[in-house]
Design a protein that fits this description.
This protein has about 450 residues and is mainly α. The protein contains 15 helices and no strands. α1 runs antiparallel to α14, α3 packs antiparallel against α4 and α8 runs antiparallel to α9.
Length: about 450
């Protein structure tokens, strides 16, 4: 694009000759990313949040989860973590890789089909028990193959020479999160095969499920979000670059904590991951004085505050996990801790950063509505605060009235999710495109 502004006559024809292919390539990458994002939005809104709301209503009515099939809880979680967050991350990961022609697009479309089919098949097996002895391991196999295709494509991505000498911390964090995703899909595949051979229902045993959730949350979601935060937040918020030593310490504590938890040392694990959660916010300098003005173009003016809130939820999740490991009896504290992590931390970060980056990556100038962005986040935060505060009180029998608060929290979160989904869909459907071909067509006559 810089060459188009150059007055030299010899440069312009060469660029215009290449412009159609470059524009077509950029358009294809953006359209495929849109497919990943829209699939993620679908799993977030319907199989994920709507099912979660239904589960919550049943739990509230019976004052406990005894009347709810564990497979339904797992189906909700799988749709949220793999169907929503996983689709977003894989889509952005593929988009970030340098394109290598039609073969690269074909691999990504194959990966997309495998991943989406696997997630949908798992949801069907969990909710309807439809041929689950075949469907559950098959879905896990499809997801595993999709991740292996993604890793194969990423392995061909050549880093610049200066990056090869010393990989940046944000890259290391995202790489560790990718390792966590690989471990999660491999763990899921092995356990689904075991269920198919010797299980009595399509749900993991409680002890196995706890280890699986630890890997999903603290080995996959947390390092990936840390990595993207280290990459984007300094520029978006106008803050200093992360403190390398503290960031490294947070990563190490998190890794050791996950290994400890999987090994059965739960109390050691929660102490380590709580410390990691606190260190991560300090390492990212989120409480420091901004060096420049935050970039709020195209998003709501409250963006600098909204982008910091997830790390408050992360600390709450870490501290509540410590409380749960020492005091939980009926699962309420553990449930609140996981909700603070998945909704308070991960979902809030997506709701805050998504309107800033997803339209751009999808070839659209800006989010459809900044007001919808703010309202969806406000509803999500209010619902999450009610859920996290009331769940321990209800489950542990401290305040009986808290059972009536849980459905309210679910309705607020569901409303926030549906508004976010509508905002993204309207952005892609009605937004002004920003593809390279359009820009070249407008500038070429001059």
């Amino acid at each position: 694009m810089a060459a188009l502004a150059h007055p030299a006559q010899k440069t312009l024809p060469v660029i215009l000759d290449n412009a159609p292919s470059l524009a077509a390539l950029e358009r294809t990458k953006s359209l495929v990313l849109r497919a990943w994002i829209l699939a993620g939005v679908f799993f977030m809104a319907l199989p994920g949040t709507l099912l979660g709301f239904s589960n919550l209503m049943t739990i509230s009515a019976h004052h406990g989860a005894a009347g709810l099939p564990p497979a339904w809880m797992e189906g909700h979680g799988h749709a949220q973590v793999f169907g929503w967050i996983g689709s977003f991350i894989l889509g952005i990961g593929f988009y970030s890789q340098p394109a290598r022609g039609r073969s690269a697009t074909g691999v990504q479309l194959l990966c997309f089909a495998l991943w989406i089919t696997g997630v949908a098949l798992r949801w069907t097996a969990n909710i309807y028990s439809w041929h689950w002895r075949v469907a559950a391991p098959l879905s896990a196999a499809l997801e595993l193959i999709a991740v292996l295709f993604f890793l194969s494509a990423a392995s061909h991505h050549k880093l610049p020479n200066e990056t090869k000498r010393r990989m940046e911390l944000w890259m290391i964090s995202v790489l560790l999160g990718t390792v966590g995703l690989t471990a999660a899909v491999l763990f899921n595949f092995v356990e689904c095969v075991r269920l198919a051979l010797a299980g009595v229902s399509p749900s993991f045993p409680h002890a196995v499920d706890q280890k699986y959730l630890l890997i999903l949350g603290w080995a996959f979601l947390v390092p990936v979000v840390w990595g993207f935060s280290a990459r984007w937040l300094p520029a978006f918020l106008g803050i200093a670059r992360p403190n390398g030593r503290l960031f490294t310490a947070a990563l190490l504590l998190d890794i050791v904590g996950v290994i400890s938890g999987v090994s059965g040392q739960v109390r050691i694990a929660v102490l380590l991951i709580a410390a990691a959660a606190i260190l991560s916010g300090l390492a990212l300098r989120l409480a420091g004085r901004p060096q420049t003005r935050a970039k709020t173009q195209g998003v709501h003016a409250s963006f600098p505050v909204l982008a910091r809130i997830p790390y408050l939820w992360l600390v709450i999740a870490g501290l509540m996990s410590v409380w749960a490991a020492f005091r939980d009896v009926h699962g309420g504290i553990w449930g609140a801790s996981r909700h603070a992590l998945t909704v308070g931390f991960a979902a809030t970060m997506v709701f805050a950063i998504g309107p800033r980056i997803l339209p751009h990556f999808g070839g659209i100038y800006r989010i459809f509505s900044t007001r919808l962005m703010f309202v969806s986040l406000l509803l999500l935060q209010t619902g999450c605060a009610l859920r996290v505060s009331s769940e321990p009180l209800a489950y542990e029998g401290i305040i009986a009235y808290s059972w009536k608060v849980l459905p309210v929290s679910g309705m607020l979160e569901l409303a926030g999710v549906l508004l976010f989904a509508a905002n993204i869909v309207l952005t892609f459907a009605c937004g002004r495109p920003a593809f390279a071909r359009t820009q070249l067509t407008q500038k070429a006559p001059a």
